[in-house]
């Protein structure tokens, strides 16, 4: 009875406010006016930018109201590909619809649905074999394009306490380069472990202090660590515009760049091919998961503050191509499970989309690893009071995990209290990490400077 009276009251007010409207004009109202009515009738506040509502209208606006405010907001905003985030009691913020962000329960339910397709090692291997080739196809990397017959461009090595740094550029497609820095132990063994270190969308990428510290510490432990740029990020901005990073081919180029780096590092670089890791944070964590699923040469994986069954990656470099349609549909946690039985550490926190990792997704990963009798080789370090970063609390478990599985001597880097001493790492200015000079003056003459030219390389795929 109350529900009926409420709806009647709402409709009565709305009809009184717009008598001239009828089904002939689909009861059409400006979105800004509708938001005002929502605030008035539900006693809420909705923050928005003028450009978000300008020129937008909603058909049958007054017919979409319901007793529940959240249900009403969905009814009103979904047709316009908009949503709200709740920021407090009766406080909302208008946002564009995020295809990559699901409700937690929706993500869990879908992961359960995927898991129902297999129940042992054999059925899981069959599922994995169905997904992998379709990932390559979705990425436009089936078959892989021919590798340019060019040598790596290398800077002079710089010597620091216990490690060296050398910048590099590799041509991964005709005129397309991936840049980065190689951190090596000062006295490397004949066969060293390798850690690929892609980073996320934090400002300054591999030039940041925490990125340099992580790579240097791994080198001081005895591993070779390779930090490299995302597409249209870092030195890649010499070739492409920053907005190109949010185009779908960014996913393809980043994946191909990592494959080419692996090719290079495993060919005569003194690397033990049984000890090859990849560890990235945020968007670099999504890249970590994808690369591990695609390339069996990677023997250990550490996605940091990235993995979730209800989040698909908020950038086209993570979800811009239909990789999640592979195998009839998949998600990032199932793709992460393709690492099994190779050791995997998932680092999560309490203030982003990884907040619920221990409650559901991690148990799924343990089940998959259990098919191989390796459930102890997948681990989760969850930091419920922390947020989305790659601070020391995230770096410490990375050091521990890599040292454990790659038999590295981490104790020499620890203080008496057992914490790692990162103070001996030298933080370089970003210019020191450039491969192509302070102003890009060393950019090769054949370098592409146009996204449309890049698209032509994948025409027909």
TrEMBL record:
InterPro entries: AB_hydrolase_fold, FrsA_esterase
Enzyme class: hydrolase
Entry's EC annotation: 3.4.-.-
Alphabetical UniProt keywords: Hydrolase
Annotated GO MF terms: hydrolase activity
Name this polypeptide is given: Alpha/beta hydrolase family protein
Organism, as annotated: Sphingobacterium bambusae
Species lineage: Bacteria, Pseudomonadati, Bacteroidota, Sphingobacteriia, Sphingobacteriales
